[in-house]
Design brief:
Layout: H1 5-26, H2 40-49, E1 53-57, H3 63-78, E2 83-87, H4 92-104, E3 109-112, H5 121-129, E4 133-137, E5 149-153, H6 155-169, E6 176-180, H7 188-206, E7 210-212, H8 216-220, H9 229-239, H10 245-258, E8 265-270, H11 274-285, E9 290-295, H12 302-309, E10 315-318, H13 321-336, E11 345-348, E12 353-359, E13 362-365, H14 369-374
Parallel strand pairs: 1-2, 1-3, 3-4, 4-5, 5-12, 6-7, 6-8, 8-9
Antiparallel strand pairs: 10-13, 11-12
Helix pairs in contact: 3-13, 4-5, 6-7, 7-9, 10-11
The protein binds beta-D-glucopyranose (BGC).
């Protein structure tokens, strides 16, 4: 059959339109792409084959999560997975749309470190509804039945190690001023860190070694060896840094302004992580009535390692993200093979017990900073000055 020239042109236009509509159904990506953007053709190709693994991390603004991203990018490539790593930038709505974007791309295993444990439940539920397996990474997604596995450090041990460091440095002292700070209440880890610390500090508050100087809520419960979640929530609510450097600084400044001279001197500070420790340490260092301070941290961020070398931060808890990333990738491999991943215990997420794989942590201070972090190949000696 012969068609008129106009009809051929019309059929071509219609075919093109149908094709474009079909593509638009698969993706929300624009049909034109600037340099570096994904074209419809590329996105559709991904949707057709699917992503093996998608990773969603809380924020690029904390070096801790950049360490994880670097390791993930290398390890996922090494494992031969098609993958994508996205950041939520401290926003649960962005986190949810990141998860939806990965679901649209056909992700099979989602590794997610929630910004807010409860808020991430909706993202986990959406993933499960699409048949995606969910691995909660470092922080537990709470209030959802749809968390398949949890890969984590031993967070109670992190808090206990921070507290033990303070206790060891306060040996022989009485009524030593103690300042307490915590992470964000929306992060289940903040509770685990605080619980671990309280287990070690409380007996030393009870025997008069330490006196709490900055939290009426903590003072209210200081005779209780074990706290309920609600009691911890009340204390954390008062001493939270929200994992935010500025909030940590403002809170420390307010505490020092309110404190009397005799509440200062040689002080002991429980700081929940490295970022907040540096802010809090700088604030205490600039108060003329603080003669010395011992301050904790965690994550072994480069800036804090330098602070430790320089004597500006006392310790950190090294959480080797290489192990955590490798554990979660090994888990993804098992899931994709249809096997049951190896786990070492479980964590209750307010709805279900989530099977978990847990990794140990290492205490680092001036005495072992070189062997633990440089000789082990984690950082290069050239990243620091004054390393002995
Ligand atoms: C992580 C810490 C981190 C903190 C703030 C916690 O859940 O376990 O390593 O410093 O969040 O991002």
């Amino acid at each position: 059959m012969k068609l008129a020239k106009n009809s051929v042109a019309m059929i071509l236009v219609l075919t093109l339109m149908v094709a474009l509509f079909a593509m638009a159904g698969c993706t929300s990506t624009a049909t034109t792409a600037a340099a570096g953007e994904t074209t419809v053709a590329e996105t559709t190709a991904v949707a057709a084959t699917g992503l093996d693994v998608g990773v969603v991390l809380p924020t690029k603004d904390e070096p801790r999560w950049v360490q994880d991203e670097t390791r993930f990018t290398a390890a996922l490539q090494e494992a031969g997975f098609t993958s994508e790593v996205l950041f939520s930038q401290g926003n649960s709505a962005t986190e949810k749309s990141n998860v939806e974007a990965l679901i649209t791309k056909g992700v099979k295993v989602l590794i997610i470190c929630p910004q807010d444990g409860d808020a991430a439940a909706a993202a986990a539920d959406a993933a499960a509804a699409a048949g995606v397996k969910v691995i909660s990474y470092d922080r537990l997604i709470t209030s959802s039945e749809n968390v398949n596995y949890y890969v984590t450090f031993d967070s109670i041990a992190v808090g206990a190690a921070q507290a033990q460091y303070l206790v060891d440095k306060a040996a022989g002292k009485t009524a030593a001023p103690l300042y307490l700070y915590a992470g964000a209440s929306s992060d289940n880890n903040a509770f685990l860190f605080f619980e671990g610390a309280w287990n070690v500090l409380q007996p030393k508050i009870a025997d008069g070694t330490f006196v709490i100087k900055n939290s009426e809520e903590a003072i209210k419960y200081q005779d209780k060896a074990t706290l309920t979640r609600d009691e911890m929530a009340a204390i954390i609510g008062q001493i939270t840094t929200n994992w935010d450097f500025n909030e940590a600084k403002n809170k420390a400044e307010a505490h020092l302004t309110a404190a009397k001279t005799e509440d200062k001197g040689d002080v002991f500070i429980l700081a929940p992580n490295d970022g907040t420790a540096r802010s809090i340490a700088d604030t205490f260092a600039s108060d003329k009535d603080v003669t010395s301070f011992v301050v904790t941290g965690q994550d072994a961020e480069k800036a804090s390692v330098q602070y430790i070398i320089d004597g500006k931060q006392s310790m950190t808890v090294f959480k080797d993200v290489r192990s955590l990333v490798d554990d979660s990738i090994a888990m993804a491999v098992s899931i994709l093979k249809g096997e049951t991943p190896e786990t070492t215990g479980s964590y209750n997420n307010k709805k279900v017990d989530v099977a978990a794989k847990q990794t140990q942590v290492i205490v680092v201070d001036q005495a072992n900073v070189k062997s633990a972090l440089v000789d082990s190949g984690y950082y290069a000696a050239t990243d620091f000055t004054g390393l002995k």
